[in-house]
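Supplementary Text 2. Reproducibility record for the structural model of the 515-residue chain.

All settings were left at their defaults, and a single model was retained for analysis rather than an ensemble. We include the record here because the model underlies the residue-level annotations in Supplementary Table 4.
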Amino acid sequence: MKQTRKWLSLLTVSTMLLVTACSGSDNSGTESPSPAGTGGDAGQTAKTPTIKIYVPDLSKAVPTGNLLQDPTVKYMVEKSGVNLDINFLPNANYVDQLKLKFAAGEFPDVFMGFGLTQGDGALDNGLVMPLNDLIEQYGPNLKKNIPQYAWDAVTINGQIMGIPEPSNTPSSRLFYVRKDWMDAVGVTQVPKTSDELLEMFRKFRDGDPNKNGKKDEIAFTMREKFSWTGDMIWGMWGISPYEGIELNGEIVPGFVHPNMKKGLAFMQTMYKEGLLDSEFLVNSSSIWKQKIASGQAGSWGFTPQGGYEYHKVVQDGLPGVAVDVITIPTPRGTGYDGPVGSVIFPVNKTYLVMKSAKDPAAVVKFFDWLFSEEGQIFSELGVKGINYAEENGNYFYRESSEQEHKTEWRALFKMHAYNEKSFNARYSGIQREKMQAAIDISNKEGLTSLTMGMPAVGQNLFNLYYEFHEPAARIIVEGAPVDETWDAFIKQWRANGGQELINEMTNWYNKNKKK
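Retained model, structure tokens:
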């Protein structure tokens, strides 16, 4: 009742704000938005620096017309002291739109990317400005709140080439396990080694944890084409198949490293003993998810963001069953003592500043505000009185307000990794518990890719990344000898173009990343 009264008060304030904003809030038009501060508000912001930003529209409703009449944009301008000319480009072909604009000489001051190189050509063509000096002078919050792993991801030859959003969950995939299955078959400890994991899988197979009297349990399931849902197996031996790793002075794709054979042998045993989903080579995403939702699967791999999602998926699929899906640390492979887990994706998005920017200092100042405590609360919870209420330092967030007031696009400006106050305002109970557990594990493990941020290679070389699928399937499903089969494949793969790919990876690393 107390929270209801808070929101009745909030709605009153929100209504008052919307009345003042309604004249400029029509999202049905297709015209390009005008910079904030034009029209009737120009005098108010005449001395405020303006930055032009290109961003995707996230396929959401976005403000048009005079942006200062949008309460969310107006809040950003007033609090940051920087006027914003935001240009929303179609989400579906965002990179193509960037390329067209750059080719026509239509440059922003700053644009959003998903890393340093995404095919838009700005960095490769020398259009992006190094930011070291500007960050040193104008970015105290950037320096304080961006961890080194995120800076490393956007640094080339010592030059910081973008402002990154650090990942809240850097290790990109985790093990998911039915804890209620563990309880049902008497597994009292989370497996810490590959041997212990195998023993748990065997108990899932034999112990009827779904209690239907049939031997139909799938101990571990994954998706077609050796997709990332199986990366957790290789990750027990420090391998991410497609990512760069050092081997005898070369940078090679993970599957070339000898440790790949450890994972193959493990999966061969799993398949032979009926512990691996027999349809793992052909499971589509929807079929794979349905197997999990229907209670057939005891373990799988997925992104840390699904820490609560897949608990709910299984619970919704099995009403009346006391479901408990947990994330667990990646077990360590037998005979291996290095890092474990899945590849680390250190950043979610990056903003790149163009050399042609009229006021690059203003760009850095704006993003520095987003990393302040005030900016973090805003980017996650929105504008007080519209998206959330506050009382005695406690925040009361209303998720439905985002669609109601068309503010979902604000996620474009969420730049920090984690803010405890906003996290606790957005999530509660078991959802918070599950998500926090996944975040904690993801921040304690993971594999560094030495080629993270490397420009895309040509199509012929790109295709080489996937040629391991066929011999891997022969080893796992047909029982082909691991060492003999894999060594012969790698030798032939190198001769058929693989060495050229390795040379390109190694040369890029030595030129751009080697310290």
